[in-house]
Amino acid sequence: MTTLKVGIASYEDMKARTMAVARGERRVAADEPKVWFTSTESFAKVLSAGNRELLRVIADKAPGSLDELARITGKAKSNLSRTLRTMEGYGLVRLERGERGRITPKVMHDRVELDLPLTLSRTAS
After folding, report:
1. 3-class SS of residue 7
2. Which residues of 3-23 are buried (b: 16+ CB within 10 A; e: fewer)?
3. Domains within the chain, CATH numbers bracketed
4. Is 87:93 a contact under the CB 8 Å cutoff?
5. Distance between alpha carbon 104 and the CA centroid of its chain, in Å?
6. Please, which of 28, 88, 90, 102 could form a disulfide with 98 given CB 3.0 to 4.6 Å?
7. Exposure of 49 by Cβ count < 10 A (0-12 exposed, 13-18 middle, 19+ buried)?
8. pTM metric for this prediction
């Protein structure tokens, strides 16, 4: 699998970066984060110990449906669905639709690398 590079930036910084790219004023470097969180708290929430364990279970057991994942983990299907949709939004999982609308979760990366600035916020340059 691959490493997903993520970064922390304010909404304003992310918007400025995206607009600069759209206007052709800036190119996205290959080593830049592909996914952005607005805070370390939001990053920590999405990649909490429980959610990392959920990703490990999906990768190891390859459940064929959310029902099967609920049986394996003992978690409510509705909670799993909500958590996995959030993770899908950050590119951590893919939810594949199969027969009769069955949803199968797939882990997309085996590592996450965090680019965390410790000084002044970056600009869109």
Report:
1. strand
2. ebbbbbbeeebbebbeebeee
3. 3-115 (1.10.10.10)
4. yes
5. 16
6. 102
7. exposed
8. 0.83
